[in-house]
Amino acid sequence: MRHFLILLALFGVVAVNTPYFWIVWDMSFGAARVGIVHDDGVMQWSESGPKAHWLEWIPDPEGAELTTQSYYEAAPGYPESGLAMVALNGPVAAIQAGFAKQLMAAGWDVTLWNQSTVNSDLPPRDIRLCSVTASQGKKSLVFTLIEGDERSSKLTWQRGAETQVELIGSTRGRC
Questions:
Q1: What is the model's pTM?
Q2: Tell me: the pLDDT tens digits for 99-115?
């Protein structure tokens, strides 16, 4: 047992001194800066983690708490974009309607979407996707709330390209 603990301590010292450990650490507790090379050779820089850059023009939805996951800087041919996971603090339909009202009051073009489907878990369960898509000039948001699988709700955004979002399989309207 003593030899195992010594070996474990040695592995721990080696692991802490590798850059990969600190990248994973930052992705879990801070913001890791990573360069991504796309198929066309363009490098796009990103920050991944709960303390990644988040833009002030993105409103916080009432009844939901955002945790930033990633931020991608603009690169030639690629818009600036980001992703946050959403913790819901109320009924999905009320949060969807409230965020749409909040965006419309700020001058955004807003569309509400809903879709009933089945998630990919085993065994499959019925879920309902309640989404808000919004655009304002070259800025766009997609806020997806998942009733029946609340831990998977998210807010994605991009800036730098004119975008009209159509959610395939969804119908327009409130949940």
A1: 0.78
A2: 999 999 999 999 998 88
Beta bridge partners of 21: none
- Asked if residue 141 lies in contact with residue 132, where contact means CB atoms within 8 angstroms, the answer is yes
Buried b (16+ CB within 10 A) or exposed e, 54-68: eeeebbebebbebeb
Residue 62 has φ and ψ, to the nearest 5°, of: -70, 135
If pLDDT is split at 50, 70 and 90, which confidence band does 18 have?
A: confident
Classified as helix, coil or strand, 135 is strand
d(CA 109, CA 14) in angstroms, rounded, equals 53
The number of residues making up the chain comes to 175
| Segment 107-160, tens digit of pLDDT | 999 999 888 888 777 888 888 888 899 998 888 999 888 877 666 788 889 887
CB 158 within 8 A of CB 80: yes
- Residue 83 carries which side chain, given as an amino acid letter? L
Radius of gyration of the chain (CA): 20
Are 108 and 132 spatial neighbours (Cβ–Cβ below 8 Å)? no
